[in-house]
Amino acid sequence: MAYAETSETDPLVVAAKAHLDALCVAITDRTLGSEGNRTATEYTGAQFASFGLAVQTPSFAVMSWQERGARLRLGEIDFDVHSSPYAPGFEGRGRLVAAGSLEQLETLDAEGKIILLHGDIASSQLFPKKYPFFSLNEHQHIIGLLEKSGVRALVSATKRNGSIAGGEYPAPMFEDGDFDIPSVFMTEEEGERLLPHVGEEVSLVSDCRRIWTKASNIIANVKETAPKRIVITAHIDAKRGAPGAIDNATGVTVQLLLAELLVGFDGRHGIDLVVFNGEDHYSAAGEVDYIRQRQGRFDDVALNINIDGLGLKQGPSCYSFFDLPEAMLSKARATLLKPGTAVEGLPWVQGDHSIFIQHGCPAIAVSSHWFIENFMTQNITHTARDNISIVDPEKVAAAARAIHAFVRGL
């Protein structure tokens, strides 16, 4: 893996490459609660401190997870399955039944059996049952039916759905440490192979276990005593199996570049560089802990700037604006939008800026224009394709400079 040809003389580009290498190459796993995740947070906190910033690392309990593979067998026929993240382990046999719709699930006799979920009912990954920021009644209904059904284990043949699962395929229908039914997942095509065997007995092994551990956010403060603050956010965790380059090492890298650029800053507002840990985790634990620590007091936030998905080689960067006061919006457009390199983006909300919007704060979401325009169909995030080879460090450095100029101008 390598970057596109980039400037070797621009010190900010050189620094961006060093941070990205540290987060995406030297560290191979940034899933919440992992050793790599702890190494990444320690690295980032130390970098902030090296620029003289006051650094806090509030910690919280999280569920981590380990798996050693899964196997589904019917007689001498093997089916390709994967353990659902954060599911409990399972080893046993059961008669196979199937549901392809909510109506079929509502009338299904699943007591002591193994259910294959396919078709319409498996068209999307379900929101976790206790996800703190959003819920769908249909998803909660499906979870409730399964929990009452007496089913032994679940097999889901989940369809592609980039809006929730990113580019991952096959993607788990269940990624939820609060859902206690063992489950595995397979491709839609593999589900079609299995479906004719409904009524037969299958053998299922899912070798995995849940582990409780600790993780932490990072909060670095610039001009701590200012009454109003600009909160610049990005998340440091990544999905299992993904280097997490644009999701979201580039966002953390912008924060690290800003820490360097903001040395000696004496603007009207204070600045918090908040590195969330857990945006890609079923519990959003870092975000929940941040809100708890603020105790609902967001009235001192003059603006949130959230960076996620930035730096893609293809296309310009983009800035999406949410409820900015007119004067601030005018300054943001004049400072941040540069024809050919940065454009105004669609109003997407699948990121940490949504926390601030929900609390009545103006926000700017920073990303890559191609990524936001193709969010539903892209096949990059949450996969091994999200590596440094797709990143243009010059765009990362340019975003840091633009955000720095904007906050100084305020």
| Main sheet strand line-up | 1-10-12-11-13-16-14-15
Number of helices: 12
Q: State the separation between the terminal residues, measured CA to CA.
A: 39 Å
Radius of gyration equals 22 Å
Strand content: 25-35%
The helix fraction, in percent, is 25-40%
Give the overall shape.
Answer: elongated
Number of strands: 16
Mean pLDDT: 95
What does this structure look like?
The chain is an alpha/beta fold and 410 residues long. It contains 12 helices and 16 strands. The chain has helices at residues 11-24, 35-50, 102-106, 137-148, 162-165, 188-194, 245-261, 285-294, 326-336, 353-358, 369-373, 393-409, and strands at 54-56, 59-74, 77-79, 82-83, 90-99, 114-117, 153-157, 183-186, 201-216, 218-222, 229-235, 270-276, 301-307, 317-322, 342-344, 363-368. The strands form 2 sheets. Strands 1-10-12-11-13-16-14-15 form an 8-stranded mixed sheet, with helices on both faces. It has an 8-stranded mixed sheet with strand order 3-2-9-5-6-7-8-4. A hairpin with a 2-residue loop joins β2 (59-74) and β3. α1 (11-24) crosses α7, α7 (245-261) crosses α12 and α9 packs antiparallel against α12 (393-409). The protein is elongated and about 70 Å long. The two termini are 39 Å apart. The relative contact order is 0.18.
